[in-house]
Input
Amino acid sequence: MARVSLTVNGVQYTEEVEPRLLLVHLIRDRLGLTGTHVGCDTSNCGACTLHLDGEAVKSCTVLAVQADGSEVTTIEGLGAEDDLHPLQEAFWNNHGLQCGYCTPGMIMAGADLLARNPNPSEEEVREGLSGNLCRCTGYHNIVKAVLEAAGGTQAAAGSRTAEEVTA
Amino acid sequence: MGAPGVEAAERTEPGGNGYVGRSLRRKEDPRLITGRATYVDDMVLPGMVYAAIVRSPEAHARIVSIDTTGAREHPGVHAVFTGEDLADMAAPCPMVFVPPGVEMRVPDHWPLARGKVGYVGQAVAVVLGTDKYGVVDAAEHVLVEYEPLPVVVDPEQALEDGAPLIHEEYGTNTVFEWSLAGGDVEGAFRDADVVVEKRIVNHRTAGAAIEPRGVLAEWREGKLTLFSSTQIPHICRVILSIQLGITEEKIRVVAPEVGGGFGSKLQVYGEEVLACWCARRLGRPVKWTATRSEDMQTTHHGRDQIDYVRIGAKRDGTVTGIHARIIQDCGAYHLIEGPVIPTFSACVVSGCYDFPAVRTDIVGVFTNKFTTDAIRGAGRPEATHFIELTMDALAEELGMDPLELRRRNFITEFPNPRPHGFIYDSGDYHGTLDRCLERLDLDAFRREQAELRERGIYRGVGFSTYVEICGLGPSRALGPEGWGMQGGYFESAQVRVHPTGAVTVYTGTSPHGQGHETGFAQIVADRLGLTPDVVEVIHGDTNTGPFGKNTYGSRSLAVGGEAIARAAERVQDKAKRIVAHKMEAAPEDIEVADGRFQVRGSPDKAMTLAEVAGEAYIPQDLPEDMEPGLDEVCFYDPPNFVWPFGAHACITEVDAETGRVDVVRYIAVDDCGPAINPLLIDGQIHGGIVHAVGQALYEQVVYDADGQLVTGTFVDYALPSAADVPSFETDRTETPTPTNTLGVKGVGEAATIACSPAVVSSVLDALRPLGVTSLDMPLTPMRVWQAIQAAQGGGDGPAATEQGKALDDHGSGSAGSGPASPSEGGGL
Output
């Protein structure tokens, strides 16, 4: 067993783990942060994307021991229902999700993309998200959401933005 | 075939607040965008053990022996079970398609193999233990001795004399033969001036929901609870009851958050009943979650048809008839309804055309592959694909514009009886094509195309005009007198007004991303003078609400939404009687307006729903003979199917040097009746397009000649990524169906049904100057490049029309991207 100390969403943890334990299983099964999902096991789909020391990584392909001494941010740490991150708000406004399974990873990848390139073109968004797979949305509204969150004016062609439900 | 007539339903005006038709953002989303939703694998129960399944590495073999000793001795292992241990299971997995007068071969398909295996990945043993990683280690110590048997994976070879028999007891690999015809088919081809024939392979694909399948079963206090990533919790409960011999009131099935389905979770899988059996046996909750490789092996595949199509026509383009012969690869065993899927191709073999004679002959075939069953579109994408590409070939043969050929044959009168017994409800096929062409500007494209060709750039445009059958469905027509499905296809709804006026809606449908909680709330809000945020929609739990038939076949709105509208109107009617009683008015003079129930013409005489509910639940002054409460149920069985339609146009660019295809522009004009929430419709169209683009360009489930699954991960099975597709142009026309009061059809599968022929046709249009006339999907760079070489008289033979049969002929690519060149296409 190995000892791992890390900070996740601002909370410090120290865990005894098997050296082979994947970071995503530490996050999900030990820490109970189930917003980070597993979709493919081969780092193709990106459902497990989270931020490790400020950079997006696919946590199904990182060992927990590699995260020793690191700061991790998961979707739960990005925002809450009463305090949404601008990307979360943009995904909601633009119907950027359907089943929601890829969404946390997609939002974490999108946040990383915008941190590196605050004003991307549509093509740059599409390339930047190409490591995250979605089977529901056809990507159209995901791309639109990321562009909106960037404050870009180059919204994707031919679609609409949702109204808010007002009480 | 007992296709029903069209009984026009009187369309109702919802009244109230006008939320129907608006692009409201979804009620579902806050939990999903913050990571607070609960999928099956997120759940943990006290005392829970994990299951790991030992699967066959052989495609066809007798099981000589299984030694579980090493696994049972592994630390933390509670038990290991094999097929023999499950001898007390009451029934194998059932298959519900029993067409009258048809010999249907249904081999026993047990959750754990008994005696032999028929496909790679078939479950042979299950290991249960406390540690998620430990059970996988232990499973390595289950020693299975196999005696390999000859393997057959090609369905046409499987039908040949002397082919290895998958199930020796039948003496044949034929699953069933089934035909549907109408009109004078022989005469149609006798009288035709021109007959075109095509052989079209519609290859095997995977649903590939990003959430792998998973189950969590608990047996406690003599009752069973199953949490499952399923589209059909109610149907699952019935089947668990049959298989386990436990009565239904002791079984609860819950579909919590479900991470995509696309038909692949319209199923009752062996792992569902196996987890329940193990949980009962151990007295502990049992969780199993598929790895992606397990999911690719044992979550049912789709398509896998070989279609022989003939269309006959007069010189002027008037089609005289169509005949399709479909060879359906069923795999080694059936799941819930696999063999019925190609019959849905037969339903729409007339397309949106006034074909006077139609015939479809289907033969289902056993092969040493996994089961095929419903994947988004389920038989209808295959039909649209072969109809549209054969119409293109006919236009070419006649020297006619393909759009003119389509227009000449469009159906224009509705309701329209088709020769094979169906009645199309409503449509405006010229209207959607007109709208599509307005957006496209074909003349401008043709000029651009010519200019680009001068510079060696090959662009083409392809069209698909389609109709689909959905809204399953009229139970009588689907039942023993007609189709032969063993089940009802109604939907249920309950609309419960609480004492303070908030509303809970229970639906028998079971969404997995579609947005039912929002769309259904809009329907109810308008009828009860509420805002959607106080209408909660509950689904996917057999312990709540009435028995339902769940979500598949684009049925949720046309059947489930209609049930909700009717239940809400029953609540509205009762509320009006209460208001009329209090206001001393007639019930027919009460209207829902401005969020209130008011006397028409006297807006000061009004009650809110909360006030009405107060009267209903404190029943001290109700009308004579009225029961207390404000809570209504509706079971709705539709009188007909519904028939959405549309026109799609695709522009692709082909790199003639590498064979790479890029979708440059895509226009979809669809008609699913009046919109409840246009945002949700667009979302379904976008996703449906990319699902079909994936099949057309990238995705293919490939088994090698030994029956080994070559595409067992997302490394090998190339799903499109954001970088592989453009943004889309969507538009709608709205032609109400007379079948239901909402006028709605369905949209979940429409774009997947429409899209693939438009993509292929556009590539053929691009490559016309190079002499390429035929291509089968997926249009991988290697396949396209080979077709160009063959057409140009190059040395490489055309593998283009052969089903992907070799290791080096599938669309592999890295990170979900399509292969960029032949050298990346996997092994050239």
About this structure: Residues 40-149+212-258+265-298 of chain B form a domain with the Aldehyde Oxidoreductase; domain 3 fold (CATH 3.90.1170.50). Chain B touches chain A through 76 residues (CB under 8 Å). The radius of gyration of chain B is 27 Å.
